[in-house]
Design a protein that fits this description.
Elements (H helix, E strand, L loop, with lengths): L21 H14 L3 H15 L5 E5 L5 H9 L6 E6 L2 H17 L6 E5 L10 E7 L7 H14 E12 L5 H17 L4 H11 L8 H11 L3 E8 L2 E7 L1
Parallel strand pairs: 1-2, 1-4, 2-3, 4-5
Antiparallel strand pairs: 5-7, 6-7
Helix pairs in contact: 2-3, 5-8
Length: about 250
């Protein structure tokens, strides 16, 4: 059962780096909803986009799937024959709970696109031929010097006409823009019930783990990886999602 995120509500003598462990998995749905503006819209839209681009007899990858929200949305919207979704995450706690969610979805909804959950490092996973790949707030946790390599592997695996959906928190070179949107993000968190202590401690925990890029950096890297055209399709404050086409 999901719980309210109280992980950073008490003062911590030392704030450790953020990890996707069992404690985070337990509160993750509440955490992500209260922390990422536009998250429900992004998730539902990923399902719609996948429904448009999924090819019959092909694979779909949800890389860094966490609890499988994007996978669940895609299962509802993909309607082509013999298509299968593979949800991949390196966290054992996340993949275990993801599997439980997918089983619960199976019990409630008929005729869903088949999906399987895999615990693996996405940097080491050999990708098979596929029509859709999702990196939903995943690339920002990949070491910067490995990001191009991952995107090149995705590009190589995608079928002609395939699509990558890449959602990320953004940083901005212009300090005024950065400060304005960062402050609005903190206001969003306060409005969702987070205290100043929770905001500060979460920021300390994640600042060395999550390293965001500018939108321009993302688009340039996607072009370097081989994608013919990339564009932002959604932005709310300092969070966005991009479609990259092969």
């Amino acid at each position: 059962m999901n719980e309210v995120d109280k992980l950073f509500s008490a003062p911590l003598a030392q704030v450790s780096d953020f990890v996707f462990d069992a404690d985070v998995a337990r509160v993750f749905p509440d955490m992500i909803k209260r922390s990422v503006p536009g998250y429900p819209t992004i998730i539902e839209s990923i399902g719609l986009i996948a429904g448009q681009y999924a090819r019959p007899h092909s694979l779909i990858y949800d890389l860094g799937s966490s609890l499988g929200a994007a996978t669940q949305a895609m299962r509802r919207h993909v309607r082509v024959p013999d298509c299968r979704i593979i949800a991949v995450d390196s966290s054992a706690a996340m993949t275990e709970r993801c599997q439980e969610y997918l089983q619960a979805q199976d019990a409630m909804v008929e005729e869903l696109t088949p999906a399987e959950v895999m615990q693996a490092d996405i940097l080491e996973l050999p990708l098979k031929s596929c029509s859709v790949v999702v990196l939903n707030f995943t690339l920002q946790f990949v070491a910067p010097d490995k990001r191009l390599e991952l995107l090149e592997a995705i590009y190589t695996a995608l079928l002609p006409g395939g699509v990558l959906i890449l959602s990320e928190k953004l940083r901005f070179d212009d300090p005024n823009t950065q400060r304005s949107l960062e402050n609005m993000h903190y206001a969003f968190k306060r409005a969702n019930g987070y205290s100043e202590l929770e905001i500060a401690q979460k920021r300390s925990a994640i600042e060395k783990v999550m390293l965001p890029d500018t939108l321009e950096t993302h688009l340039a890297r996607l072009q370097e990886a081989g994608f013919s055209h990339s564009h932002s399709w959604f932005q709310s404050l300092n969070f966005c999602s991009i479609m990259a086409h092969k």
